[in-house]
Amino acid sequence: SRQTKLKEVAGIPLQAPTVDNWRQIQTFEAKPDDLLICTYPKSGTTWIQEIVDMIEQNGVVEKCRRAIIQHRHPFIEWARPPQPSGVDKANEMPAPRILRTHLPTQLLPPSFWTNNCKFLYVARNAKDCMVSYYHFYRMSQVLPEPGTWDEYFETFINGKVSWGSWFDHVKGWWEIRDKYQILFLFYEDMKRNPKHEIQKVMQFMGKNLDEDVVDKIVLETSFEKMKENPMTNRSTTPKSILDQSISPFMRKGTVGDWKNHFTVAQNERFDEIYKQKMGRTSLNFSMEL
Length: 289
Ligand code: A3P
Fold this sequence. Notes:
This protein is α/β, with parallel strands linked by helices. The protein has helices spanning 16-20, 22-26, 45-56, 61-64, 69-72, 86-92, 111-114, 126-139, 149-157, 166-175, 187-192, 194-204, 211-220, 223-228, 264-278, and strands at residues 6-9, 12-15, 35-39, 98-101, 118-123, 181-186. Adenosine-3'-5'-diphosphate binds at residues 39, 41-47, 128, 132, 135, 221-223, 226, 250-253, 257.
């Protein structure tokens, strides 16, 4: 069984090496032309990352395949000594940089705010996100064991998973969306109308690509293509980190898989908790397509 334990920063559980490297993360120096991809885990990070990369590379597939996806845009909080940390990697990158984070707003390195960086936030409905995270917890060997679905259910709603509470994370980024340069997207919209959402990202990035290029990006960033693509499907990540024989990284890529996991009682309880925690926000998620 795994020996992994999470540690907390200001009440948010994070992976221990990240917490041990917290000083370097908090003093990270963002640059004004940084674009930061922000998500709660399992909300479509890899998907939006590939979209952003393809836009940046003007739809040239070969340029997106210059490196496996997790090496193209580091997570600023990533740490696994003795390898270079996310901050080390970002510091080596030429501007303009595209970086990633799963951090909630209150833990973001302050220089992102003072430099008025662009933020691209993707939110996914809580139930599908929770299901996806459960399967990720099962296969990831660097997270604690999730236990049974019922046990994991409690851990998730109590915000005791890595990167903390879904509710607080999504609410936190939603509430500041008009104060900063934030494009707030939804996984479900990206599924329903990828072309439309990709065009929004393109405009946000100040790019203007021809329609045939946009169509190509839609195709290349489909779930089916990304599942087959060794640069995006994490097939090169060692089994000691991600054991894809337990659950594939590119698992289902659908909206509504929660219905295959939640009992009726769990669903009622979840809806009640959701109302308590999210009731006063104007956020609205599709739970099925
Ligand atoms: P599922 O586990 O529901 O299949 P992240 O990249 O933030 O870790 O999110 C992973 C989730 O996004 C997984 O969800 C994965 O299958 C899904 N995903 C990845 N690429 C996708 C794509 N191109 N289209 C739709 N979903 C995608």
